[in-house]
Amino acid sequence: MRFGIVIALDAEARTLPARNGGFLDHAQYQLQVSGPGPLRAAAAARELLDAGCDALLSFGLAGGLDPTLRPGTLIVASAVHSADGEPLPCDARLHTDLVLRLAIRNPCTAAIYGADAPVIAQANKRALHSSLQVVAVDMESAAIGRVARARSRPFAVLRCVVDPAGFTLPRAALVGMADDGGRRPLAIATALLRHPLELPDLIRLAVWYGAALRALRETGALLCK
Question: CA-CA distance, 101 to 5, in Å (whole number)?
Fold first, then answer.
């Protein structure tokens, strides 16, 4: 089996040991950096399947919705609730394989939310957690799940919490992602000049971001060879 791993950001991709290699002892993987958002993720997922991959994995960072989850918490999702209300269950066998391999990290195993746009405010995070019992949010997993279902391929989600549920994302952070998955440091600096009071929150987010990337790197070492 060959896993196609869709990753939104370059920084997330660098947490895996290589662009391709062994996966879960009995399989191979091939990764593709899509850039952020559902449309780019769906296109990357289709390209990986067209290239011969047998299963899809959504891998990377997520925003926390469950107030008990701290930055760096690993999530092996049981399902993805899409923004249009469509449930996308993850493959049970892949879910179990990932949970068993990552048991040392005690991953959270629950449903996440697939958003069409960033979920910024803590009030919106609380509302999603309360209404859907989802524990985290990202913008790519639902799109990847739809592609997997359309092609009758298994699908899994492995994410790590960056910002906790009680944190509102600063505007400077939202402009920092480039369409190709890279970073836009000049855009961040410009946003900070306009909103200098956001600097303490941006520093806190940077610390959490580093912790989450370290957790993904340790996870990649457990999964990939």
Answer: 17
pLDDT of residue 178: 62
Q: Rounded CA gap, 72 and 61, in Å?
A: 9
pLDDT at 180: 65
Q: Which residue has the tokens 């009758």?
A: 152
* Sequence-separated (6 or more) residues with CB below 8 Å from residue 40: 8, 34, 140, 179
Please determine, for residue 6, whether its predicted confidence score (pLDDT) is greater than 80.
Answer: yes
**3-state class (DSSP) for residue 153:** coil
Reduced to 3 states, what is the DSSP secondary structure of residue 197?
Answer: helix
Say yes or no to pLDDT of 176 above 90. Answer: no
User: Could you tell me the sign of the dihedral formed by the alpha carbons of 60, 139, 122, 168, in that order?
Assistant: positive
Dist CA 31 CA 51 (whole Å)? 11
Task: Calculate ∠ Cα 172-173-178, nearest 5°.
Answer: 105
CB atoms within 10 A of CB 46: 16
